[in-house]
Amino acid sequence: QELRPKSLDIKQEELGDMVEKEMASTSEAIEDAVRRIEEMMSQARNESSGVKLEVNERILNSCTDLMKAIRLLVLTSTNLQKEIVESGRGAATTQEFYAKNSRWTEGLISASKAVGWGATQLVESADRVVLHTGKYEELIVCSHEIAASTAQLVAASKVKAEKSSKNLLRLQECSRNVNEMAANVVASTKSGQEQIEEKDTMDFSGMSLIKLKKEEMETQVKVLELEKRLEGERVRLGELRKQHYALAGTYDTTEDGEVKPAPAPRRGILKKPPLAQKP
Q: What does the DSSP assignment read for 243-278?
């Protein structure tokens, strides 16, 4: 009992219901994301024009394609899970199968939650970008997060699947399609950002020599400030990842609260080291 993950706060007999609920919740989140993107598209057409409208349409279209790819992947993953349960449970009930394979079931629940959360975050980031209150970088990070979470779902689904399963082949194809659509979101976001920035090109032709020198010094100060901030954020990212691994069980925590890597598992029987020869 002590060795079980601390994050597990549900009983094993409830795991089966949790899988079905989480997969249904993920599907609903994706459907809602598609509807919200369509609403944003209509709003963008009414409130923007020219280059901004072109950029917004391209980004939102790529987000819609990504959501459709994720929806198909979740559906295929659900079919594969049903196939796995039916072929592996024997005389046991579905609930007993999930309870018996609790670690696998927990992986499915975690992966499903990650996919639904990623889809929601992507839509919220796209909404802020269209309203010019968000950053293009948020969309790029969300796209990478979705690709990672769908890969987690595929990995969790294929653990117990037969290699010859048609549903497994479909799932792997869906995963490749999701990665491709996520890359399209990143590409359309980067090109849109460049297009907007080119539209607002800086013009220094009307500045005097003194004004140019002042602007140059102020820009150098900003560069130094950003470099210092970047270094601080990298340190923060490292600490966040370390804590993430600690919660996931990759690291051990000492009595003083210090996080250190967990000892590697021993392989085989350790041999006694040879005795040192006397001089």
A: HHHHHHTSEEE-TTS-EEEPPPPP-SPPPPPPPPPP
